[in-house]
Amino acid sequence: MKFRSLITQMVAWILVPVVCIMIFVWVQLDGLANRFVGYLERDISGQLNKIERELILVQDTTEQIARMVARDGKVIQAINNRQADFLFRMGKNSIDSTLVDQLTIADPQGVVLARGHDEFAFNDSIAENAFFRLSAEGREFSGIAGLDGGVAFVVALPVNEFGSVFRGTILVAKFLSPKLLEKIGKELNLTLAISPGMKTEAVLPRPGNDMAHANKTLSFESADHRPWSLSVSKSYGQEMAILKATRLEILLFTVIATGVVLCCVYFSIHYLLRPLRRLHTALLRHQNGLLEPAALDTGSIIGDTPRNELGFIAVKALTTIRDLEKAHTELQDMHDNLEQLVELRTSELLRKTAELEREVQVRKQAEARELGLKNHLQSIFDSMCCVLVVVDTGGMITFANA
Where would a tag sit more exposed on the chain, N or C end, judged by fewer CB atoms within 10 A? Predict the structure, then answer.
């Protein structure tokens, strides 16, 4: 196996967790975007609640002004005396304060005594007005209604003298004009509108669409008993641009940091494995007969690489290989000497064998001559007419003729 492939494998082993980290970072970035959109959702919901509190404050202000007028003794006396000029001036002063837009005062029959906001005709009547009828019945109304083609907070209060005597009606209106809504929206950096009907849909900003829309059903009492909804539109272009830039910066930083880490890891592994690569190259050259065993030098393997664990392993491996090569050479020499010795001993054995064979042949020939001679002598002794006996020194007969 080549060491470069080992480096590649090691980098791949490191690349797998890096890819996992990249996936984790991407998931976290996606979660960050979702959390940011959730923050924007809470923000626009908070804006809706804030606007509703502003509207409640406007309604309370309108209602308080109406109650102050309805409880003012001078106003009650002016209604009794039908002092239209005083009532007009009082209403106009309230309207000039910009806290209310309309103020109408009528007697118990619905005849208008004064309007602080405009002129009125003689014997002008609001007897058919739904708010007047409520006041005539002794009931109060404070809520939202469509008025003169717009939306307004309307407060209708009965004017009672001595706590129970009905003297007339106070109608106070504060228009939620586009200018007022624009002023509130400008302070909150959004666009708002109030319309009849119940709406609950909400559109949150997404990449490519920075506008967020939200609706909320107002809790105010309605003259026609139908709900009114507050609609808010706000641009989160700057926030979405910051989110996009932040996500891009984090992603680019992660990619660059990952690339730098991989390069450092690659070159570190490449540097640390240098002794093993040199050892591999030297062994290949030695295997191909291009390098003698004596040329396997540890200095050429280590070079300028520090003596780390891999360098120590390479040196030990090279030393072991050199020892094995030396032992192999000695064994080869012993093998060659043994062959020569075997050949020498074999030739000596062959020579000895030939000599033994010749000696055996000579002995056989001598024995045959001796036997022939013996038989010849025996024939001579047997043909003699005398007795021939041979006795040894011990008195034993060793030969006798026939």
Answer: N
